[in-house]
Each structure stands twice: as C-alpha cells, then as structure tokens.
Amino acid sequence: MTSLYLKLPYVIQFIIVNVIGFFNDRMKWNKRVVELIPFYEKQDFFPIDKVTRKKIINDNGMTRNKSLCVENFDSIFNDKYFTKDLFTSGTSGQALRYPVSQEYLDNLWAVYWKFRKIHNVDHNDWFVYFVGKSIISVDKNNPPYWISSYFSKQLLMSQYHISSETVFDYLNKIKESKVKCIHAYPSTLYLFSQLIVENNLIELASACKIKFISVSSEKLSSHQKELMEFVFSCRVVQLYGTTEGIINAFECEHGSLHIDEAFSDVYFTHVEDNKYKLSGSSYHNLAFPLVNYEINDEVLFFDNYECSCNRKGRVIKEVLGREDDYIILDNGVKIGRLDHIWKDTFNILEGQVVQYEDLSLEFKVIKKLGYSKKDEEKLNSNIIDKLGSRVIFKIEYVDIIPRTASGKLKAVMSYVK
Predict the structure, then answer these.
(1) 368 vs 250: which has the higher pLDDT
(2) Which of 31, 147, 391, 394 is a plausible cystine mate for 387, CB 3.0–4.6 Å?
(3) CA 170, CA 142: separation in Å to the nearest integer?
(4) Can you give the pLDDT at residue 58?
(5) In Å, what is the CA distance from 410 to each residue of 166, 218, 280, 334, 353?
(6) What are phi and psi of 315, to 5 degrees?
C-alpha cells in the first residue's frame, strides 16, 4: 500500500493524509481522553486490585519478552477488547504486531495531552512533525516535502529530504505556516539544527518564533539539546516510552523525567552502580496484556529523589542507549532512526543496517523458520520506499549479529567518515 501511495499525485496524497488525520484526531481527542487528563495530572497511583488483575490477564510467562509474544501471539490476543493494531520493531529489528484496546489508546493520549498541558500547549496548537513514515517519495527532488493535515493540526514534514540543499525550504515553510510547536526524533532535529547553523540560517530559525519542542523515541544527549535550544531559542523537552505501553515518562517544568505511575507497573532490575534495566506490566490493554515484559532499555535511576515540582512517583536520571548512527544517501541527505523498515516484517528475528564508505548498505537479517520469498520482497519494498530507488543495498542472511561491548544490538552502523 505504501508503494502505491507514493506513486500517487500530490493532491491525492494530500486528501488521503487529511482523511486519515480526521479519524486520528477523533482517536486522540475524545470525551474519555479529556476525562482522564486530570487523573494523570494528579499523578495518583492506579487504584487496581492486582490479584484480580492477575486473574484477568493470566500471568503465565508468555509475555515476558518480544520473542515470546510473537511465538504465543494467538494465546495472548483477546479479540473482545481489540480496537486497532500498533507495530513496533524497537532496537532489535524484530517486528511485533501489538493489538490495543480503546481504553489503552485513551490512556495513552491522556498522558500525552497532560504532558503538553504542563508546558502550556493545548489541543488547538498546530505541530510541525518530522515523520519517519513515508509521506513523500524519497526520489522527489523539489518541494513540497510536506503535507498539511488540517484535522490533526499537523504540518507533516518528511525526514528523508532534509539536506543542505533543502534546509532553507523547510525552514521557510515553517515560518510561513506560523506553526509554533515541533515534535521529532532527536537525531532528525539535531541534523536539521546543524544544517541551519552551517547554512547561516539562524535568523530565519529565530523568526519562526517556536515556543515548544518535544522529542521522543531516541536518547536525547546534552549536546543535541544544547544545539537545538540555541538554534530555536526554545527549551527542548522529552517524552520517553514504548509502543507496548510498558513505561511512559515525561519531562516536567524543572527538567526531571517522571514516570507516569498510573499508566503502567514499571520494574527496575539492578545491573550495576546506579544502572537499572527496565521491565513492566501494562495496566490498560486487555487486547494484548503484557506482564513482566522486558524492554531491555537501561536507565540511571534517582532513588528517593524528590523533584521541586512536587509530583509523586519515581524519577529517571538518564535513559541510556537508543543511539544509532546516521546513514547518508547519495544526495547528501542523512537519515537516522530506520526502525520503520522492519516494523511489518514479522518473519525476521533480528535486523541491522550497515553502511560502508562507498555509501552502499547491507541489511543483516536473521530469518525465522517461516521466512519466505514474500518476506524478502516486502523487505526490499520497505527499503526502497524509505530510502529511494537509487539506494545501493544487499540483504545478507546471517546466523548471528554481533553485539556491542555492553551486549546491545546496534540497529544502524556506519563506516562512512
């Protein structure tokens, strides 16, 4: 479907995006979501009878990690509560179809709107979204590289066209649109900020008068944050969470990363010193309930830390990992966060992208038993949809993908100097 969409005329793409935006806005902003926002603002602990809950979700060990969920999908899935599917590949390259309930979606958006409200942003504010999904063909070499979604109040900008040659077009469009809020992956917005500096566009960035910037899905480093805030003269705050709803944490007015204790039951497993590995149980998704689910992210944790904002709950000092290299296309465009390539490739156990000095790409793949020619065709299609028809790549099937010294799989590796 993505390949067909990308071949359509821009006006048809615009209509499709706005139809989807209409239904998405009804999902993200409804009566139940509005009712839940004050509950999360109070940061009360979720009033649930855990014994009853254990009976409902039948904690039998099948949901401890992604591999077990994939293997036991039919046993875990409860169609009675099903509303829609979400998809995730995380940092491993292994795709997971994650069915969710309406109650899960309502709680997810309630914590998100609560986060925005803390920073004086509301439902009527438009956002610039630098999106990882393909909304414009990567082979397109002239603007627009964006689509306005009026019902969802989003100026959707393709992250796959950002370069020295296009940065002025992007920035000028943001200024003309008068949109004052931005959301993006840290790697994407950091690259955009670098290009603004390199092309002497600081004054134009300042003229955009951005009032709020949020980032998520990757680690936000101090040097990234410093540059973004310098370029846009605006504070950058972060959200941290998982598609599976195992944890949601938000940055408050004082810069602390608070866990939404009412959203999920988060566990910390000590690794060393102040480093902990995360796992947890979802509170709100009976369509695909997860118990003691390991996400393998590691954090530095404040024990008994009390933030000056006086909110209850635990505070994370720093999220470790979630950092990948960029890849570079032949037109100079840099792209980070390539997880969308793997998200619907369900017969791949693990995947890694490697770029060599000649800009060629190698996709290392560990196959599952059910892997077929159809899966390979799907992966090929995803790669071309995301990176364009000119990209030179090969798929290499392997038995094992080496880990880093800390034991983690690095999703993207680059040897380009």
Answers:
(1) 250
(2) 391
(3) 11
(4) 54
(5) 29, 13, 23, 18, 9
(6) -125, 130
Q: Which residues contact 379 (CB under 8 A, 6 or more apart)?
A: 341, 345, 348, 363, 365, 395
Taking Cα atoms as reference points, which of 390, 271, 289 lies closest to residue 331?
390
pLDDT category of residue 81 using cuts at 50, 70 and 90: very high
Q: What angle do CA 272, 273, 278 make, to 5 degrees?
A: 55
Position 320 scores a pLDDT of 80
Residue 47, number of CB atoms within 10 A of its CB: 6
> Quick one: tokens of 175?
């200024």
Q: What are phi and psi of 79, to 5 degrees?
A: -65, -20
- Cα separation of 227 and 330, whole Å? 26
Taken in order 323, 108, 255, 203, the sign of the CA dihedral is: positive
pTM score = 0.80
- Give the C-alpha separation, 157 to 154, whole Å: 9
pLDDT tens, residue by residue, 127-181: 999 988 889 998 898 999 999 999 999 999 998 899 999 999 999 999 999 999 9
| CA nearest to 145, candidates 126, 127, 165, 118 | 165
Per-residue model confidence as pLDDT tens digits over 274-292: 888 999 888 889 899 888 8
Rounded CA-CA distance 132/84 in Å is: 20
Nearest-Å Rg of the Cα atoms of the chain is 21
Q: Please state, in angstroms and as integers, the Cα–Cα distance from residue 285 to each residue in 76, 81, 104, 288, following that order.
A: 11, 8, 5, 6
Locate the DSSP E strands across 242-274: 248-251, 257-259, 264-272
Contact 156, 131 (CB under 8 A): yes
